[in-house]
Amino acid sequence: MPINKKIRELQEKREKIHLGGGEQAIKKQKAMGKRTARERIMALLDENSFNEYDLFVEHDARDFDMDKKSLPSDGVIIGSGTIYGAPVAIFAQDFTVAGGSLGLMHSRKITKIMDHALKMRMPLIGINDSGGARIQEGVNSLAGYGEIFFRNTISSGVIPQLSVILGPCAGGAVYSPALTDFVFVVDKISKMFITGPEVIKTVLGEEISMEELGGARVHSEVTGNAHFFAMSEEECFDQIKKLITFIPWNNGQKARMFEPGEPKPEYNINKIVPEDPTLPYDVKDVIRAIVDNSDFFEIMELYAKNIVIGFGRMGGRTTGFVANQPLEMAGVLDVDSSDKAARFIRYCDAFNIPIITLVDVPGYLPGVDQEHAGVIRHGAKVLYAYSEATVPKLTVILRKAYGGGYIAMSSRHLRADFVFAWPSAEIAVMGPEGAANIIFRKEIMSSDDPDRMRKQKVEEYKTKFANPYVAASRGYVDAVIEPSETRKFLMHSIEVSENKDVSMPQKKHGLPPF
Ligand code: HXC
């Protein structure tokens, strides 16, 4: 056969497979506001950068008439490409082929690209759109999932792993995303659940829609399973691309440097924190007043809003931010915010990203609900994550730093490298009101005018303790700085921490309070 004919034959074979489950199935996919698997890869990667592998892989299942069925590419596309020049390995499940269900060969394609990503030390992106284990292939499908989960775990902390949920993600299939670093969801399109509405109806007799059970909003606002929420696939891909610019390709590298730019003047750092310590403010404005170009990329924006996490750049270097948010529940620490912060701290530590912590915390949230939900165990995760982290750790105490919150929020005692405090900082065991009521109770009760005496004692306590100078006199705070000096102090601290080198005692691994 002449070579041109052979090339034409290859082209025809490719074109046929590129049609996936066929025009009808593609129409159905589009009607749901979804792109095809191939379109998704093309939209996400740099133009002409995608190299596809295993296009011709077919399943070899025999039961339930499977021997009569051809499933193009076995319902998943794998390959590698680049995003803004950064190499990435990628797989995208094709729902138009047997509902993107995962059979043995489908799973082998995914594990092949996972192995490739780990060996080449590049990020892995998985686009999930699947009815879960391919029922006709029985235990082979389950084996396939097991192989994926194992690799997710082994790759954890070595290469970044991103999961994009662009359709159903049912049954055990949700556990691969849950083992990865970042989960992206899109309104109305993404669904994640272990047992679907049908099973719930059969077992519990309860009716619930897929959306209410495990839609994008549920996982962004309630469960905390999702890190990024978007209104469309397009917005979701923009988020993925932006994230890729902030993170290194693997744990042996640092994130790429970008040309630094000054924060925008509209974020006037001197005016953000109100003089009255009981008034709230948006801590994201403080972050925007500090980071390059005021560009703050928030993570888990809709979950446990009392703590803010995300990436920004300081002098061109990626930096992780953890900040109490006085706008939500006065910025207390609780079960959910502790989980949110602790995992992010560990992410930054695994991938060589310095952490800046902005503190304004009245302490841990009191109450039976929190105690019974395990605030001791979950709160301890923050202590563990900060203590264990060896990346540069910089802390700025903006206002309240009370009790356990003071210790937990990257204090000197958990080995923060630099601790700064604004003059508005109040570092104490508890707030002045509570403290005065306890330690001066006898004087207050026996006074002719208890209210006046209480006020006087509160003022006394404030003067003595509700300031940064006691902590500064012990060296727990390195410098009391003006808000306008914050960026300068932090940039310098990050610069001098460039070659930070600390070692931990030899161990197989620690036992964080999971
Ligand atoms: C084989 C499947 C499939 C599956 C869907 N399909 N899921 N084939 N195995 N798990 C096929 C359908 O038969 C159909 O084929 C095509 O995909 C499209 O599916 P529809 O049902 O028509 O689509 P839709 O109405 O959009 O509903 C999507 C869905 C639903 C919600 C995902 O298909 C569904 O509930 N599927 C089963 C989900 C599930 O229970 N999975 C197993 C979980 S157990 P045709 O030929 O008609 O086009 C599990 C265990 C793993 O995953 C454990 C690991 C630890």
List keywords for this structure.
binds hexanoyl-coenzyme A; 514 residues; 2-enoyl-CoA Hydratase, Chain A, domain 1; alpha/beta; eight-stranded mixed β-sheet; 16 strands; 39% helix; elongated; 20 helices
Briefly characterize the structure.
With 514 residues, this protein is α/β, with parallel strands linked by helices.
Overview of this structure, please?
The protein is an alpha/beta fold and 514 residues long. The chain folds into three domains: 2-246, 2-enoyl-CoA Hydratase, Chain A, domain 1, CATH 3.90.226; 269-429 and 468-496, 2-enoyl-CoA Hydratase, Chain A, domain 1 (Alpha-Beta Complex), CATH 3.90.226; 432-465, no CATH class. The chain contains 20 helices and 16 strands. It has helices at residues 3-18, 23-31, 37-44, 104-120, 139-155, 175-179, 197-204, 210-214, 216-222, 233-246, 283-290, 335-350, 368-372, 375-388, 403-408, 432-439, 441-446, 450-465, 469-473, 486-496; strands at residues 51-53, 76-83, 86-93, 124-130, 161-170, 182-186, 191-193, 228-230, 297-299, 307-314, 317-324, 355-361, 393-402, 418-421, 426-428, 479-480. The strands form two sheets. Strands 1, 2, 3, 4, 5, 6, 7 and 8 form an eight-stranded mixed sheet that branches. Strands 9, 10, 11, 12, 13, 14, 15 and 16 form an eight-stranded mixed sheet that branches. Helix 12 (335-350) packs parallel to helix 14 and helix 16 (432-439) crosses helix 18 (450-465). The longest helix has 17 residues, at 104-120. The chain starts with a helix and ends in an 18-residue tail after the last helix. The structure holds hexanoyl-coenzyme A (HXC). Residues 98-99, 101, 131-135, 142, 145, 168, 170-173, 196 line the site of hexanoyl-coenzyme A. Hexanoyl-coenzyme A (HXC) binds next to helix 5 and strand 5.
